[in-house]
Every structure is written in C-alpha cells, then in structure tokens.
Specification:
Putative zinc ribbon domain-containing protein; single chain; Zn_ribbon_dom_put; 79 residues; 2 domains; mainly alpha
Length: 79
C-alpha cells in the first residue's frame, strides 16, 4: 500500500506493473482535480481554500442549528 504524494491518502495498486505512471503516484481524487499538475504553492492554496470552505460550511450548519433551537424556544414560550 502506498500513499498519495499530495494528500497522503492510502492507495492500493490496481495493476502490478514495472512501469510507474502518474496514477500510481497520485490518488484518483488528486488526479481528478488536476492537483498533480499544480506547483506546490498552488497545491497549498487549493488545500487552504478547501479547508476554509469546509470551515464555513460547518459554521453555517452550526448557525442554522442554533437558529432552529432559538426558534423552538420562542415557539415554546408562545404556547
């Protein structure tokens, strides 16, 4: 078992081959998003953007949950 050189994801070889190709060095997710063609700075930037987007999504979900809780409390108070 190998690891993707970009994201560190565990990979297993689909085909045993003497020839090393790009797919044996990078995982399918990085290949799909073209990460292997980017410079290290571009890779880091895209990882930071993804992390930021994930954090924003989590913050939005938490805000929605809190708003729903407040709404439930208000509805209970009005009863």
């Amino acid at each position: 078992m190998d690891q993707c050189q970009l994201c560190g994801a565990a990979m297993t070889c689909v085909e045993e081959s003497d020839e090393c190709d790009v797919e044996s060095v990078f995982c399918s997710v990085c290949l799909e998003h073209g990460e292997w063609t980017k410079s290290p700075a571009e890779q880091l930037k895209s990882q930071l953007i993804l992390t930021f987007e994930e954090r924003m999504e989590m913050a939005n979900e938490e805000a929605v949950e809190k708003a729903e809780q407040i709404l439930e409390r208000l509805e209970e108070m009005n009863r």
